[in-house]
Structure formats: C-alpha cells, structure tokens
Amino acid sequence: MNQLVCNFAPVRFLPYREVGEFINVGVVVHCPQTDFFGYRLVPLKRTGRVSGFFPELDIKIFKAALQGVARELRRLQGCHRLLPTKEQIAPEIAKEQVKRFREVIHRREGLLHFGEGGTILADTPEEALDHLFGRFVERQFAEKREYQETVMRNSLARFLHDWKLAQHYQMNKKVGDNDFHVVMPFVHFAGATIAKVVRPLDLNKAEPSDIYHHGGTWVKSMERLKNRGQLPPKVIFTVSVPERGKRLDAANEIRNELQQLGVQPVEFADTQRVREAFELETAA
C-alpha cells in the first residue's frame, strides 16, 4: 500500500517569549495528496500540565489562548476536505494548499504558535495525527523520573530572567572532561573556566528507595568529578525534599553526602537562598 505524505507542526504554548520556554499542547497535520487538514489540542480541562510548568501563570490566560487557536484551526479546516478519504486531488490544488499550510505554521505572534514543521509518511493522515499527538504532547507529559526537575529548571530560568542574572549563565554545558562529564543547566564562566554551576535536584520522590537511587546517582557523579579534578569551585543543587518521615531522612542523607563533597544543597522552596546562590560575588 502506498503511504501518504503528511506535513505537520506542533502547537506550542509560549507565555515567556523572552526566555524561550514552551510546552507542546497540540499538533496540526496536512496531507496535500488528499487535502486533509486536521488538528488535535489538549482538552481545556487538562490544565495540570500547564500549571505544572508555569505555576505562577493565571490558567485563564492559557484557556483563552487555546480557545482562540481552536477557533482559528476550525476555520482553516473548513477550507479543506472534512471527510477521511484517499482520493487524491489535482497537483496544482495540492501545491497551493501546501503553500497555505506553510504560511499558517510560520506565524509566530501570540501565546500559542506553531513549532518547527516536519514531514512523515503514514497509511492515513488520521493515523499520522494520532501518532504525532502522542509523540509531541502525551509523551512529553508522561510520568517520568526527570519530569519534576524539568519544572524546577523552567522556574529557575524565569527567576534568573526576573533577577537580571540570566546573562551571567550559559545553559546546558558539559562539566568534566572527555572521558567523563555531566550536563549542567546553569553554568557561569570566569573567562574560559567554569566558576559555578547550579542544577535542580528533585528528592521529593514517592519512596525512600527512589530518593536514594536518584540522589545517589548525582552524589556518585560529583564524587567522580572531584576525583578527576573536574569539580567546579562552586556547585549548587537547588533541592526539593519531602516534608517528613523516612523519605525526608533519605533526602537529608543525600544532602549530607553532597555537602561532604563540597557541593552546596539549597532548599528549592527558599527563593531568597536560591537567589543568593545564583548571585555573583563582587570584589571589595
């Protein structure tokens, strides 16, 4: 069976354009051979993903933006075939519709816009739409180990922008040497030398064992950097911890092990201390 060419683009929610933070909240698909145009957006009721990434944002702003883009996509859909079909259209019409689709996805204004477009082959465009929604949206918000640290990292990036410190830090840089290194989200250089690194660490896990496994991985990584003479002068982990019980005991044990290596753990919830951790020392 001949497969169909499907052009697509993710729909992105970008409330803070100046720092480039976004989450995928939908996808649009156009099949020029059959003139299929379809889209799929997250339901308005499923706003937990947005508030998780942008906790300070008024969720009404997101809902209004999503409703607006849904209206626009419905209007565009009306200019294409509405029923599933594999009957191909005239090449000149297909060419014109591809041009229109590209014009649509190149729009960048507003809180919701389209990400980088792409092309895939599929048996049907409906199948492509389902696959791409799962790939760009549902997988992004699946329950996974590093999810909360992504939320924390996004918050730290916004803090840096608000505190006018973002220009002093480079994002996602390797720390270590060619044989062993880790990627740190916030890195400050003094000339060509790494002077300070900051990363979030989520120790607020469901079970003590999860805390030991996840935290222990970073303890071991810091120990290896130190043994190789690659540990920067200042390494700060902004740490999220449980409130009480054995999980808190496990988190405290990880924090103590980090401190013994010269790594400074700072409570992520203590915004003032987090700011102090990011601030640069000035000469007297």
Written overview of the protein:
This protein is of the alpha+beta class and about 280 residues long. It has two domains: about 5-140, no CATH class; about 145-280, Trna Endonuclease, Chain: A, domain 1 (3-Layer(aba) Sandwich). Helices cover about 40% and strands about 25% of the residues. The chain has helices at about 50-55, 60-75, 90-105, 125-140, 145-160, 210-225, 245-260, 270-280; strands spanning about 5-15, 20-30, 35-40, 110-115, 120, 170-175, 180-190, 195-200, 235-240, 265. Strands 1, 2, 3, 4 and 5 form a five-stranded antiparallel sheet that branches. Strands 6-7-8-9-10 form a five-stranded mixed sheet, sandwiched between helices. The longest helix is centred in the last third of the chain and has 20 residues, at about 210-225. It is elongated. The N and C termini lie far apart (about 75 Å).
Could you outline the blueprint of secondary structure elements for this entry?
Elements: E1 4-16, E2 21-31, E3 36-41, H1 48-53, H2 59-77, H3 91-105, E4 112-114, E5 118-122, H4 125-138, H5 147-162, E6 170-176, E7 181-190, E8 193-202, H6 208-227, E9 234-240, H7 245-260, E10 263-267, H8 271-278
Parallel strand pairs: 8-9, 9-10
Antiparallel strand pairs: 1-2, 1-4, 1-5, 2-3, 6-7, 7-8
Helix pairs in contact: 6-7
